Amino acid sequence: MPSPAVVQLSGVDVVRGSAHLLRGVDWTVREDERWVLLGANGAGKTTLMQLASAQMHPTRGTVTLLGETLGAVDVFELRPRIGLTSASLAQRIAPAERVGDVVVSAGYAVVGRWRERYDIHDLTRAAMLMDQWGVGPYANRQFGTLSEGERKRTQIARALMTDPELLLLDEPGAGLDLGGREDLVTRLTDLARDPNAPAQVLVTHHVEEIPPGYTHAMLLSDGAVVAAGAVDDVITAPLLSETFGLTLALGRVRGRFTARRATDA
Ligand SMILES: Nc1ncnc2c1ncn2[C@@H]1O[C@H](COP(=O)(O)OP(=O)(O)OP(=O)(O)O)[C@@H](O)[C@H]1O
């Protein structure tokens, strides 16, 4: 029997003025699935993450998250059950905030503010997550002094702090050097393979960043779904070529993908 759905979109449109950000999107993410979401700049990926994190309502259609339908639920109760990392959330973290506070304060759904005291359970969980994501040694550093890779990993530790049922990672690989990217892919592969980890959705621009262990993929173009399903069926040269509007050659070695223009020698 399939595991329960954590995200369910049915006939979803998002319209702003004359702009169609999403058109007729149907999508189901199940508890044990790990999805990668690919599409060109402006395809609608971040808009989809905004819906899946209960930060936005659809113009038309229904969005059901963790069994609760948007419009019929208090989003402030839903949001702590969903972990999100994104560039816009990162911008809201004060550079002077202590890394340990960035992580532990997630449990209280605040950025840039922390309580006088956290309970020992929270502090222990934050320390465990910081170690797991390789930022334990920086707990007393200011967030603004971290490298881009360390900041990305701090944000993921923060997103996991509330023990979410759904983890949404909007371009965690952006701005990382090769070593940082490989480190991130390794950690995300471990998380993908952890049967106790939450359902995961990763937005990326690069097939090289798809962690082995990811089970499903969606390709978006101009707000519409080009393809969605098992990674092996969706991450193909013809479908990627259609999505990005150029002829691509695709390679795969030990679960890792590479893509390049097919006409290049
Ligand atoms: N409030 C708005 N009004 C009009 N257009 C908008 C609004 N918000 C976003 N858009 C447009 O909607 C499209 C989809 O944006 P979105 O951020 O979801 O794309 P994306 O796939 O995440 O892009 P990128 O890869 O560049 O981050 C873009 O063309 C964007 O300019």
UniProtKB/TrEMBL annotation:
Family matches, as Pfam families: ABC_tran
This protein's name: Iron complex transport system ATP-binding protein
PROSITE patterns: ABC_TRANSPORTER_2
Annotated organism of origin: Klenkia soli
Stored SUPFAM superfamilies: P-loop containing nucleoside triphosphate hydrolases
Taxonomy, superkingdom: Bacteria
Residue ranges constituting the ABC transporter domain according to the UniProt record: 7-247
InterPro entries: AAA+_ATPase, ABC_transporter-like_ATP-bd, P-loop_NTPase
One GO MF term: ATP binding
Gene3D superfamilies: P-loop containing nucleotide triphosphate hydrolases (3.40.50.300)
Record's keyword annotation contains ATP-binding: yes
UniProt keywords, alphabetically: ATP-binding, Nucleotide-binding
Keyword Signal: no
